[in-house]
């Protein structure tokens, strides 16, 4: 009798693991993150004063930078702003924008930083008066067509270069009388535009 009970206990012990109910493995979809311009490897050096155009400055130069992000299937868009911070006549917070650079295909953080492709500044495309100016590189998953700003400012990053637009003759690397920095992209340009329209309607 004792031997039979021992055998039954052994059988139960062997079968016990097979009686466990296992759940399906839990999977998590990666959450999209803002595209981040990686600080290392940026060229030109944003700490330097660039000399552009005129007799002594560069007519054009490539911009080298890498971007890291979790894109959740969305490509990363790229834009260059001239004199970001100064409101232009149509209410955008920059003098001019160049948005049509090659997009970065969607990737993941596990893929590591990816280099921008074909981003360069050409001083002949948009002539500027001699003096102090700014060039700002902005990356985001989506830009607003009306304001030229990221659709969500939190989904973006940027880096700025100070440069002197040269003219005829000498061009020392000195920055004087630089453009205003009072304006900036709104956190949500759609909401900002809606508020402006509502104010105009109310005032009328």
Model description:
The protein has a domain at 31-171: Sandwich (Immunoglobulin-like). The longest helix has 15 residues, at 189-203. By secondary structure, the protein is of the alpha+beta class. It has helices spanning 2-15, 189-203; strands spanning 36-37, 49-52, 60-62, 66-68, 77-82, 96-98, 114-115, 120-122, 131-140, 156-165. The N and C termini lie far apart (100 Å). Keywords: Signal. Residues 191-204 have a biased composition (Polar residues). It comes from Polyangium spumosum.
Short description:
It contains 2 helices and 10 strands.
Which descriptors apply to this entry?
single chain, 204 residues, alpha+beta, Immunoglobulin-like, five-stranded mixed beta sheet, three-stranded antiparallel beta sheet, disordered C terminus, signal, Lipoprotein
**Number of E-state strands:** 10
Average residue-wise pLDDT:
87
**Weakly predicted, low-confidence segments:** 9-15, 196-204
The side-by-side strand order for the widest beta sheet comes to: 2-10-9-5-6
Please summarize the sheet with the most strands.
5 strands, mixed
Shape: elongated
Per DSSP, the total helix count is: 2
Strand content: 15-25%
Query: Distance between termini?
Result: 100 Å
Q: Which structural class matches the secondary elements?
A: alpha+beta
Radius of gyration: 28 Å
CATH third-tier fold name of the domain at 31-171? Immunoglobulin-like
CATH hierarchy class name of the domain at 31-171: Mainly Beta
Order of helices and strands: HEEEEEEEEEEH
CATH architectural name of the domain at 31-171? Sandwich
